[in-house]
């Protein structure tokens, strides 16, 4: 598309466009759980846990110790516990050689992968 093609496109006239080759890029998983009334038990086969207190996180991280991936949603955790919970999960993941992966921009949904597990796709 030359200069005039760009001008026509800018003015709203669509010309014949060639299909663009799609690039395979890594995308960040985004799940909007706040907008739904449902609390899914699983996302893509990985169990989702909803701690409501900082103390409940220790129970859920036992799954990671047993080499099972989990997703922790902090959307129901009070704000004062949320920061401490995130710090605890990060520390646990570092100590267990697990991966700590944020899944949404609101910083409320995290994937914890045990050592040796990878994300496909």
* Low-pLDDT runs: 18-35
The CATH H-level homologous superfamily: SepF-like protein
Using the CA coordinates, give the radius of gyration: 21 Å
- Pattern of helices and strands: HEEHEHEE
Q: Determine the CATH topology.
A: Translation Initiation Factor IF3
Key terms for this structure?
5 strands, 121 residues, elongated, Translation Initiation Factor IF3
Describe the 3D structure.
With 121 residues, this protein is an alpha+beta fold. The chain has one domain: SepF-like protein (Translation Initiation Factor IF3, 2-Layer Sandwich). It contains three helices and five strands, in the order H-E-E-H-E-H-E-E. The protein has helices at residues 3-11, 56-65, 79-95; strands spanning 42-43, 46-49, 70-73, 99-102, 109-113. It has a five-stranded mixed beta sheet with strand order 1-2-3-5-4, with helices on one face. A hairpin with a 2-residue loop joins strand 1 and strand 2 (46-49). The two termini are 33 Å apart.
Topology (SSEs and partners):
Elements: H1 3-11, E1 42-43, E2 46-49, H2 56-65, E3 70-73, H3 79-95, E4 99-102, E5 109-113
Offer a concise description of the structure:
The chain is α+β, with helices and mostly antiparallel strands. The chain has helices spanning 3-11, 56-65, 79-95, and strands at 42-43, 46-49, 70-73, 99-102, 109-113.
């Amino acid at each position: 598309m030359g200069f005039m093609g760009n001008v026509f496109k800018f003015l709203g006239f669509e010309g014949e466009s060639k299909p663009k080759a799609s690039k395979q890029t890594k995308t960040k998983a985004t799940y909007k759980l706040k907008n739904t009334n449902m609390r899914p038990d699983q996302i893509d086969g990985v169990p989702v846990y909803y701690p409501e207190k900082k103390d409940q996180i220790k129970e859920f991280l036992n799954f990671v110790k047993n080499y099972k991936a989990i997703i922790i949603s902090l959307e129901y955790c009070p704000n004062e516990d949320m920061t401490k919970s995130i710090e605890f999960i990060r520390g646990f993941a570092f100590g267990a050689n697990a991966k700590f992966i944020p899944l949404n921009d609101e910083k409320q949904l995290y994937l914890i992968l045990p050592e040796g597990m990878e994300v496909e796709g």
